[in-house]
Amino acid sequence: MWRVTKGKVEVALVHRPRYEDWSLPKGKIDDGESELAAAVREVGEELGCRVAVSRRITRITYDVGVTHKRVAYWVMRYLDGEFVPSDEVDAVEWMTPNLASARMSYDVERRVMTDFAAVPIPESVIVLVRHAKAGKRSEWHGEDAKRPLDPVGCAQAERLRDFLRYFAPDRVISAPPVRCVQTVQPLAEALGLDLVIDPVFSDDEYASAPGAAELALLALAKPNQVTVVCSQGTTIPGLVDRIARGIRPSDTRKGAAWVLSVVDGTVVSADYYEDAAR
C-alpha cells in the first residue's frame, strides 16, 4: 500500500496486537476466492480503504510451527477510506520505504519492500484485455466485426467486470468489433463510465499502422489514471512486444489481460493474467 504525502512516497504498516508486530497488511484466502480478490478484500478490511492495484511483486514462503505459508503481494495505490482500529489490527502507520523496512518485525517481509523499492511507483496503469469468447468464425455468417459473444463469452465478461474493478479504472476503451465492446460493457456500466470506441486498437488498424496503436496506447498513460483497453488477438501481443521490455508474448488467450505499469512513458512492469475471466 502506498500513497504520496508532501511529495514523498509512503507505505503502510499495520500493528497486530495478538503478535505485537509490525508488518505489511495481508490475510487468508476464502473458499473460492482468487489471490488478488483476497488481497484487495484483506487490505480493505484491515485499513478501511479502497485501493487501485498495479503490479505484482515478490512471493514469499515461511514456516510457522508445522504450517508452511505462501504469500503473494501486489503494489496497491491508496485511494480513500478511514482506518478503524480492531482486535486484529489496532494501528496503522505510514512511512517511507526505508523507515518501513527498519520498523518491520520480519526479515522475510523486507524482501517484499526491497522489490517494491526496486521499481518506480507507477504513474499510470493500462490494462489490455483480449475480448471474451465469441464462438467460431467459421460458424458466423455475417460480418466478422458484428460477431457477438457466445454464452461462455458473456459469462467471461461478467467475471472480467469483477477482476478489472480491482485496478480502479478511470476510463474504458474498446476496439470497434461487437465482441470487444460486449466484453467491457459490463465494466463500464458498473463504474458509470462512458465506453469509448477507438478503431486504432482493432486488428485491422494495427496491421496497417502498428506505430499509431503504440502511440495511442502510451498517450493514455496520464498521472494517476487507470485505463482498460479491450482489443484483439493480434493487436494485444503485438503491442506488448513493442512497449514492454524483455517480454515476448506468444499469445494472449481470450478473456486474458496484461496489466502494464507506466512511468514517464515507459512500461516498467507487465503482468499477464491468463485466468482473468475464470
Question: How does this structure look, described?
Answer:
The protein is of the alpha/beta class and 278 residues long. It has 2 domains: 117 residues, Nucleoside Triphosphate Pyrophosphohydrolase, CATH 3.90.79.10; 150 residues, Phosphoglycerate mutase-like (Rossmann fold, 3-Layer(aba) Sandwich), CATH 3.40.50. The protein is 31% helix and 32% strand. The chain is built from 8 helices and 12 strands. It has a 6-stranded mixed sheet with strand order 9-8-10-7-11-12, sandwiched between helices. Strands 1, 2, 3 and 6 form a 4-stranded antiparallel sheet that branches. Helix 5 links the parallel strand 8 and strand 9. Helix 7 crosses helix 8.
Give me a quick take on this structure.
This protein has 8 helices and 12 strands.
Task: Give the key terms.
alpha/beta, six-stranded mixed beta sheet, Rossmann fold, Nucleoside Triphosphate Pyrophosphohydrolase, about 280 residues, four-stranded antiparallel beta sheet, 8 helices, single chain
